[in-house]
Amino acid sequence: ELAFEPADTAITGPLIAAAHAHSQINVEAFWGEITLDATRWALEQLGSRFENLRSDQVTVIATGLSNGGHAVLRALEADEAGLIDAVVSIMPNISSPDTAHLYEYAAMAALYQPCLLGDAEFAAGLPFANPLLIGAGRSRCQSLFEAGMLSEPDSAEAGRVLREFGFDQDSLTFSAATVALDIWRVVLANYASAYLKTPADAMPCGFRFEAPGASPAQKQAWWATASGSPPGNGVVLVDAMLEEHPTDPHFSGLRCLFTLMNDDRLQASLAATRAEARWPHDIPVFIVHGQHDGLIPAVFSSRPYVDRARANGMTVDYREIAGAQHFDAFLNVLPGEHDWVPILPHGWEALDRAWSALESGR
Predict the structure, then answer these.
(1) pTM for the complete prediction?
(2) Angle between helices 251-259 and 102-116 (to 10 degrees)
(3) Which of 163, 181, 230 is nearest to 22 (CA)?
(4) Which residues, in sequence order, are bridge partners of residue 209?
(5) Which of 192, 201, 193, 217 is nearest to 9 (CA)?
(6) Looking at the predicted structure, is the pLDDT value of residue 345 above 70?
(7) What is the DSSP string of 52-94?
(8) What is the DSSP letter of 153?
């Protein structure tokens, strides 16, 4: 069976439709309710399997990482029935009112972080830095200057713009990684389509996902190996604007995605995904975030969410881990002069603390 069926089933040739980007539903707005539905379903299954087992005899610790961290916090906020006993949220992609949303800071980073890397001295000490990024970064500085988006075509000015927007030094540590791996462009293309509810053949700014060279074996494995946010596994991101700016081929497409922040429909979708940082029941809540998270910087996510929750009278155990970032898989290739640490063991430790808090009643 299909995981989802596109509204327009005429997906032909190399074109690819993905549920997150092309369901034409802003599903992120419902992540909390979906998580509660999954909890109810799990309790029903346990009740049908174990005779006389009541839901109040089952301990529910809702835990998730990144988007999943968002989902469990939003589920907690909507949990009027008190299904959840504790929450552990790891590096949540969470946006509070009056703080920059993922789409907004990703759009800024996608345009300005490459220019920041044009400073060879700054880029030299960053993970994943390489000489190609320096040359491309200087081209980006010039593109931004010519577009009236920088007062001077230099890296220092790009850094000023990013810091004025809210990025701190920790959140910029992995700029070379996010740029080298093209993470921001992929995030923006997927989320713009999701937020504007566009089908696969009408994504914003002329982007498309195609799999022209995917083998039958790759396609048969997509259900297990694909992340849900293409590209990858034979799927490529097609940018219709690549040839508009020969010296900086990604600039035109990224600038188009950036200007979508002024679209009222997109802003309405962003508003529907924002969290209130207030929950109906006093339960143990643990949030863990990497201090050097470059994809979901704590300065835009966990920190303002925790501050807002505490201002609302909520109790949160928040721990920010020095030397941790978003991708533990990077640890094998990161330079050794920094004390980089994995984030997942701290998430597991938070689960232990959640269980201990429930057992002790503290």
Answers:
(1) 0.94
(2) 150
(3) 230
(4) 237
(5) 201
(6) yes
(7) T--GGGS--EEEEETHHHHHHHHHHHT-TT---SEEEEES---
(8) S
